[in-house]
Design goal:
seven-stranded mixed sheet; six-stranded mixed sheet; 19 strands; 43% helix
Length: 540
């Protein structure tokens, strides 16, 4: 997990007896140990670590976490990388893994620990303006007002985060009105309504935590991006944001009257777990479901208890919620995600500023080529399938060394994307490494290129990806960027820059560029550049 939220996770890990590994993927957590439960978990569960440390004295169970996204975790299940490396998985929901046969067969005993519905949170003033306080509001009305641009919101990428996927399932199921799990035919029937709903999405993110942090930074003016009226996220995240006292005005939670999709956080034993792990899983699950621990979970994480008899706190305005059906097959899930990326969501525009200096020669330039080629559809994995360049997307490549190179722009059409993808592939194959490193001249050139593109077609998600493996050695300096940035046109200042540290890149400077522009910083050291480029796709 290479997101700003990783700083919070790392801090918790450093102070806690509950150990964790914040790297995403299926690298494993070492050999099995008696009294230890090795858990592949959703990144949002970092907030449970202090409580698990407290409960360790009572259970005798030490929890070792490795964090990942739902889609990546499902892929690790499906390809068998979890076998022998983990004892349990703990995602916000098992609905997606259960829809993938090769993943589902590795899931064993499941114990639900807590719950949190995915709902719409709007600033109090926006909710009052729309008349959505004190009366029932359905997804249909929400979609209608979204289509009129009466409000804007942020949501996570449904291929990267369960909250985004749950929101997509919820609104699609409610609009279809079928009363059962949505299928490919019904998805096609509500595509236009879904397009109207997602036309109001003004911010994307790869994780629920980063989305909430980005919303807060925009609301307070710390982030130069345009402010949004609200966000779709877990109820627990929205309540925690309100409780933090950091928002200029609180969020009003809107619970669609026709239903929601709820995360139920099942602590799930793997079929491959040994007897010691099975015993640890039983002890931990039993302890977590005691009334006292359920109340602690509710107080510390703002998630709902799942054990009967534990009274809901006053912060939960709605007690009884309608649960919407979830797609039952992988084919239905694929159809919904495919329609979202290729037809429904606002198209994106991304400019890649690519270091091709002499220090990139050898394995590094090969890794860069492979990363870009993977995004053209060459990666057939679950994650690669949804993180490729998408229909209607506009992609600009700007290689640089001593000076910025010649940019090349590609537009991926909706009808037949393959010719455009083949052109991008040939461009990537032709990248070569030589010369110096002009990072900030090249970033300035990126803004110059983006200016007329944005002016001609402003209704896109815009982003810049800056990748470098070295120190800036030519042209403008970081201090020049700091001086120039405030004078850029407002539309340019609102474009997030996602910086990628590769090799000996200056992490302090690249981190500051990302923070100043409202973007994010990714660490690609360790030969994981293709995976990092896929992660970035969740934010675009």
């Amino acid at each position: 997990m290479k997101r700003w939220a990783v700083l919070t996770v790392a801090a918790i890990c450093a102070l806690s007896l509950v150990s964790c590994d914040s790297s995403e993927g299926g690298t494993g957590l070492g050999e099995a140990e008696a009294g230890t439960l090795r858990v592949l978990a959703g990144s949002e569960l970092a907030d449970l670590q202090p409580l698990l440390e407290q409960e360790a004295a009572a259970t005798g169970v030490k929890v070792k976490f490795q964090f990942t996204g739902t889609l990546e975790g499902t892929e690790s299940l499906a390809n068998g990388k979890v076998d022998g490396q983990y004892d349990a998985v703990w995602f916000s929901s098992n609905r997606y893994p259960a829809a993938v046969p090769e993943a589902a067969k590795r899931l064993g005993e499941q114990v639900k620990v807590m719950s949190s519905p995915v709902v719409l949170g709007l600033s109090a003033s926006a909710a009052q303006r729309l008349g959505w306080t004190g009366r029932p509001v359905g997804w249909g009305e929400i979609a209608e007002q979204a289509g009129k641009k009466a409000f804007t919101y942020g949501m996570t990428d449904p291929s990267a985060s369960n909250s985004g996927f749950s929101a997509l399932v919820g609104v699609a199921s409610a609009l279809a009105g079928a009363g059962n799990a949505i299928d490919a035919r019904q998805i096609a029937a509500v595509t236009q309504k879904l397009t109207e709903f997602f036309s109001a999405q003004a911010m994307s993110a790869g994780s629920s935590g980063w989305l909430s942090e980005a919303y807060q930074r925009r609301a307070t003016g710390e982030d130069p991006g345009k402010k949004v009226d609200g966000l779709i996220n877990y109820e627990s995240v929205l309540l925690s944001m309100n409780a933090s006292g950091k928002l200029p005005e609180p969020l009003t939670l809107v619970y669609p009257s026709d239903g929601v999709v709820t995360a139920d956080y099942p602590l799930t034993l793997l079929q491959s777990a040994n007897s010691d792990a099975r015993d640890a899983h039983r002890k931990l699950a039993e302890r977590l479901r005691t009334p006292d621990t359920q109340r602690k979970i509710m107080e510390t994480t703002q998630r709902r208890p799942v054990v009967p008899g534990v009274q809901l706190g006053q912060q939960f305005a709605r007690k009884d919620l309608v649960e919407l059906p979830f797609p039952a097959t992988q084919q239905a899930v694929d159809a919904l995600l495919g329609a979202y990326f290729d037809k429904i969501r606002r198209p994106s525009r991304t400019l890649y500023v690519l270091d091709t200096s002499g220090s990139m020669s050898g394995d590094r330039i090969e890794s860069l080529r492979a990363a870009l080629i993977g995004l053209t559809g060459a990666d057939g994995s679950l994650t690669g399938r949804y993180r490729r360049f998408r229909s209607r997307e506009e992609v600009t490549m700007l290689p640089f060394d001593t000076v910025p190179g010649n940019p090349e722009t590609f537009t991926v059409p909706e009808g037949d994307p393959q010719p455009a993808l083949d052109k991008i592939k040939r461009f990537a194959e032709g990248l070569d490494a030589n010369g110096g490193t002009a990072i900030y001249d090249s970033l300035q050139r990126a803004y110059e290129i983006m200016g007329p593109l944005v002016a001609r077609d402003p209704d896109r998600f815009n982003s810049i990806v800056l990748m470098t493996d070295g120190q800036n050695a030519n042209g403008a300096k970081f201090s020049d960027f700091q001086l120039r940035f405030p004078s850029l046109p407002e539309a340019m200042r609102q474009i997030p820059v996602f910086t990628v540290i590769f090799g000996e890149g200056d992490s302090a400077e690249l981190g500051e560029v990302a923070k100043r522009t409202g973007g994010n910083v990714f660490d690609a050291r360790g030969d994981v550049l293709p995976k990092v480029f896929q992660e970035i796709r969740g934010y675009q």
